[in-house]
């Protein structure tokens, strides 16, 4: 009897870097954790995941070391990014997408040439859609607000290290995949974030549908693309189209 086919996976990625903007900054650690589709049609974490230190080819700034505690001497003998990236970002069995929390950061370093043009799922943007009642949408706030089933507390520590952060994100991704389709999560991830509540100003903390139209109009030219997109979407809803906030089960199916 032939062995069962290898399951489709989505690989969750987390990076630690010397700073926020390549090429001035570079990767110093990559971590991953796979989420696989089971024969029962449910998604679940698969395998142990892992992490690899990377030589960034430049000194690590002290302000960055204070976040992840990776020192220059820790990565002095590590491999270079171009030697590490492709096997991690384009794994076998079949990888149907990559994922990260605020994936736009990882995408700066994990370029299409390294990912073979993979689609990305941003668990931050998807959390805005699926769990709008969360008090915040950071990886760690979602962890303690939702308390995902099966998350081993110690395995998700320390924070700001590549594997523990990827491990926590993978639990969010698993639960999102069991609420919405892969295609839907990818589509949401390609759009700006749809914010459940106003971030700042006199209406801070209010749901967008609660604010006066005069205030809403002011957000239509905001410099933040997520704020601007949310205001545009709310304005469209008031004009008879679009949606802000939690989707109904029927809308999720569509």
Automatic annotation (TrEMBL):
Quick check: keyword Signal in the entry?
no
Which CDD domains does UniProt cross-reference here?
A: DEDDh
Q: Which keywords accompany this UniProt record? A: Hydrolase
GO MF, one annotated term: nucleic acid binding
Top-level EC class: hydrolase
- The segment(s) forming the Exonuclease domain are 9-182
Enzyme Commission identifier(s): 3.1.11.-
A single BP term in Gene Ontology? DNA metabolic process
Q: Which SUPFAM superfamilies match?
A: Ribonuclease H-like (SSF53098)
Q: Which InterPro entries match?
A: Ribonucl_H (IPR013520), RNaseH-like_sf (IPR012337), RNaseH_sf (IPR036397)
Top-level lineage group = Bacteria
Q: What is this protein called?
A: Exodeoxyribonuclease X
Q: Which organism is it from?
A: Sphingomonas abaci
């Amino acid at each position: 009897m032939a062995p069962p086919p290898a399951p489709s996976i989505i690989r969750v990625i987390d990076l630690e870097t010397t700073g926020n903007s390549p090429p001035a900054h570079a990767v110093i650690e990559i971590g991953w954790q796979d989420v696989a589709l089971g024969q029962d049609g449910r998604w679940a974490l698969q395998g142990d995941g892992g992490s690899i230190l990377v030589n960034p080819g430049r000194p690590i700034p002290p302000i960055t070391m204070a976040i992840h505690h990776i020192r220059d001497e820790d990565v002095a003998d590590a491999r270079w990014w171009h030697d590490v990236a492709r096997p991690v970002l384009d794994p076998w069995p079949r990888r149907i997408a990559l994922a990260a929390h605020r994936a736009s950061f990882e995408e700066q370093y994990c370029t299409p040439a390294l990912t073979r043009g993979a689609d990305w799922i941003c668990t931050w943007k998807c959390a805005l859609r699926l769990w709008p009642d969360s008090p915040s949408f950071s990886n760690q706030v979602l962890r303690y607000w939702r308390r995902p089933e099966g998350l081993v507390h110690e395995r998700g520590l320390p924070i700001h290290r590549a594997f523990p952060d990827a491990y926590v994100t993978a639990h969010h991704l698993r639960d999102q995949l069991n609420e919405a389709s892969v295609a839907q999560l990818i589509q949401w991830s390609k759009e700006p974030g749809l914010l459940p509540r106003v971030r700042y100003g006199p209406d801070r903390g209010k749901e967008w549908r609660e604010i006066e139209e005069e205030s809403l109009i002011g957000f239509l030219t905001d410099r933040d693309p997520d704020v601007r997109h949310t205001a545009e979407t709310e304005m469209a809803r008031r004009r008879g189209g679009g949606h802000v906030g939690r989707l109904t089960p029927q809308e999720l199916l569509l």
